[in-house]
């Protein structure tokens, strides 16, 4: 059975969150169901939240169905050998109208042992940030479980954490074990391993409409945490019509691609490619057919689609597995 090759778009999976807002609608054109929509899962193979194709001949089919039918054509032989017929990455947009909880993600070994899951290495690309908006990434200075617990109990954990002011275009790479939080007033494109394992440490003493606090995972986080300082911010070049590598790790490679005019693309078929459009609009031409995309669109290019062209004026993030 031969797969029909074209750039695949998926229905967003929208998530209401305590900290969510309306920027996924106003900035990215998503049809949000509530005024506290915090996340749009653009491409997901997480159990219970599997993406559904929204364009072309496979419209209405799930990502799981496609992977079961055409695993190597979609993933690429190398990725298929490593992960089987499972999509290894999760792509999201996040709108933090309020501060997110302070949290940490376990590594592969711990996640496998406790949850039979991948760990959660991730990166953030800041798409929009209000004046003075900040994130938390890591500790200010080398810490310890004892110091961390004491500050948590005294409700002054933030004193020992690294607060960073952010602006549009900033990139942060968070290895597993990095304590972190996205602050209010930020829209982020997030690329991560396929995992929904989060250890929530501190949630600013918030309660929901029923007066209930969200569950915390303080004990589980203790041995998942990296208590050393970490360098999370990534600098990168912005050469037009070129994939300027921002993050290169065993789980994914992400490049910054400022598209100006026309660009021919040739791939080797070893990995799928994903494009996230963070600004502008563009046309992808493949097999003599044109496909139009805009800001807020995330598309999957099957590995077997090795020759295509891009044209337009847009800012793209290009993601693949090296």
UniProtKB/TrEMBL annotation:
**Which InterPro entries does the record associate with it?**
Carb_Metab_Reg_Kinase/Isom, Man6P_isomerase_Firm_short, MPI_cupin_dom, PMI_typeI_cat, RmlC-like_jellyroll, RmlC_Cupin_sf
Per its record, what are the GO molecular function terms? isomerase activity
What are the entry keywords?
Isomerase, Metal-binding, Zinc
Q: Which residues form the Mannose-6-phosphate isomerase cupin domain?
A: 243-320
The domain of life for this entry's organism is Bacteria
Q: Where is the Phosphomannose isomerase type I catalytic domain?
A: 12-117
Source species: Flavobacterium litorale
The molecule here is called Phosphohexomutase
